[in-house]
Amino acid sequence: MSNKAISDRSDLATTAREHPLILWLITDNKPGHRNQLEGLRLAFERQGDIQTHWLNARAPGQSLLDWGLGRFPPGSALPKPDLIVVAGHRTHLCGLAARRARGGRLVTLMRPSLPTGFFDACVIPLHDDAPVGEHILRTRGVLNPMRPGVKVPGSAAILVGGISRHYRWDDDAVAQAIETLLDRWPQALVTDSRRTPASLRGRLAARAGGRYQAWEDCPPGWLATTLACTETAWITADSVSMVYEALTAGCATGLIELAPATEKPGKIAAGLAKLEHDRLIVTLSDLLASGTLPSRPATPLAEADRVATQLLALASTSSA
After folding, report:
1. Can you tell me the mean pLDDT for 264-289?
2. Dihedral sign of CA atoms 38, 44, 46, 50 in order
3. How many other CB atoms are found less than 10 A from the CB of residue 13?
4. In terms of domains, do 89 and 173 share one?
5. What SS3 class is residue 233?
């Protein structure tokens, strides 16, 4: 079923549904994967009545056995799902077992390790290679739960990542970039990640003082709340998910560049280059060379809402 075909059924899905959407979310509990599932859950919630059930993925070997036997014990006491959504390779067999045992449509977020034809829909970021198919839904970045809020004029945040297989990390270069940004936005919040080298974390804390927020001290929802009201966000290139989160939150978004790990730019760098080409982000090099400042997107990204609309239409074909 094509994206257009799914979209054309959205009105039917809204009018024909007489019960809440029954949504099963199968998670491996990795923060990034759970974040994607939560973003989609909130988008479904904004569009209508839903009943959500979170389930932990079983071990792959156990899930393979469940699939073969047509059983799914974790969901045996739950209402039959309209949609089963999985995120993370470890969840795929579990989702297949759940669908065979209880029915519903099976959706995977990000490119699966199994053939895409095993799933009713695959939600895959544009920067990932994916086969063309009627059941493939392409998105700008991975789904996330961010939402724009009322921006505080002049506010800024600097989000620092760390060691990544896609880029060559350089503490000194990143520290100098942050120094440059803090000269222009002296009240900017600075936060790091679990990948940030300890050597750089100490320098960030010393430079930003009370404006420094260590990642492990961030309460749940801190980033979403912060980005919602922040006018400008600067992000290191390795933290590609945060770039899309900032755009979804309606922030003017800048990129702190890093040297690629290989001579040929990879898919992550290509995705960021496309955002720069479309003038959705500005690089620090542009700022230094021409004074070009990032600007807020005219329309914040809302990929989770768009995908939720399409998947509601897909669910209607299983219940009609």
Report:
1. 91
2. negative
3. 24
4. no
5. strand
